[in-house]
Amino acid sequence: MIIKMMGKADGDNYTLDDMFVSSAAQREGDGQEEERMRSRAVGESRRLNASMEKCRLCFSSPELHKHLVVAIGSKRVNLRVFPVAVQVYLSLPEGVSMTEGHCRICPLQHHCAATGLDEDVWSEMQLFRRTLVKMFEAQEMDCVFMETHMNPRRRQHMALECLPLPRELGDMAPIYFKKAILDCDEEWAMNKKVVDLSSKDIRHAVPRGLPYFAVDFGLQGGFAHVIENEQKFPHYFGKEVVGGMMDLEPRRWRKMIRENFDDQRKKVLQFAQWWKPYDCTKAPEDG
Ligand SMILES: [Zn+2]
């Protein structure tokens, strides 16, 4: 009986000590965890600052090629419907365009992916998208909108690329893209390979922070793919699909081909002419 009680007491002592030790360890752990979180946050903001300083797409950046900008923000959305700051701009690529009319919609501020965009930035991008679809429709062209979000840790500035293509090819684009996505990356993917965007946009289809590729066809929702292996997924994936459909040379999309200032100016003037009658940044009564 006594032995039994001692045994029990010992057991309790042991448990008490153990509890004490573990809660002390916990306190220490909390401190360490806090410190870790703090240094991670500092590291992240330092990385973000570093990527913003060199960013060629931030509107406030000295690196931005302002002469390639075709349109900025939307007065109609900003002033008349809801008073928010201008959020996005439309510009042409600094290298040789992959197809005539190749352009991109970018947020003015340093945002890294559509999955992290606020509603106001997103809705202004969609306004530009609708305008481009209308503009290319008048030229009997379809267009695809693509976003490639890779290496999330590098925090690169996002761009929604728009590539116009002849209507008969545009009709085929969903088939080509679906096949290319099914064949890309890892054969045994952890995530569903093709995410359907016909009834939900990318922000509701792919969790924030994951690398992905997304394509939409004109005003129709297209597909997204969560990139499983960034080594096996080329950054020019979407352009390669369009380039293949159009029978272009691979050098047109693999690397940027430099373009001189005069040629850049020419394509901007041409694009501005197409854009003017549809310009969504002008209130209807302005024009
Ligand atoms: Zn930026």
Give an overview in words.
InterPro entries: Cwf19-like (IPR040194), Cwf19-like_C_dom-1 (IPR006768), Cwf19-like_C_dom-2 (IPR006767). Helix 4 crosses helix 5. The protein has helices spanning 2-53, 75-81, 119-137, 167-183, 237-246, 251-254, 261-275, and strands spanning 69-72, 88-91, 103-107, 141-149, 160-166, 195-196, 212-217, 220-226. Strand 7 (212-217) and strand 8 form a beta hairpin. It contains seven helices and eight strands. Strands 1-2-3-5-4-7-8-6 form an eight-stranded antiparallel sheet, with helices on both faces. Helices cover 43% and strands 15% of the residues. The protein is of the alpha+beta class and 287 residues long. It is globular and about 65 Å long. Mean pLDDT is 85; it is low at 1-22. Residues 52, 55, 57-58, 110, 157 line the site of zinc ion. Zinc ion binds at residues 52, 55, 57-58, 110, 157.
Notable traits:
287 residues, alpha+beta, eight-stranded antiparallel beta sheet, 7 helices, 8 strands, 43% helix, 15% strand, binds zinc ion
Helix-strand layout with pairing:
Elements (H helix, E strand, L loop, with lengths): L1 H52 L15 E4 L2 H7 L6 E4 L11 E5 L11 H19 L3 E9 L10 E7 H17 L11 E2 L15 E6 L2 E7 L10 H10 L4 H4 L6 H15 L12
Antiparallel strand pairs: 1-2, 2-3, 3-5, 4-5, 4-7, 6-8, 7-8
Helix pairs in contact: 4-5
The chain binds zinc ion.
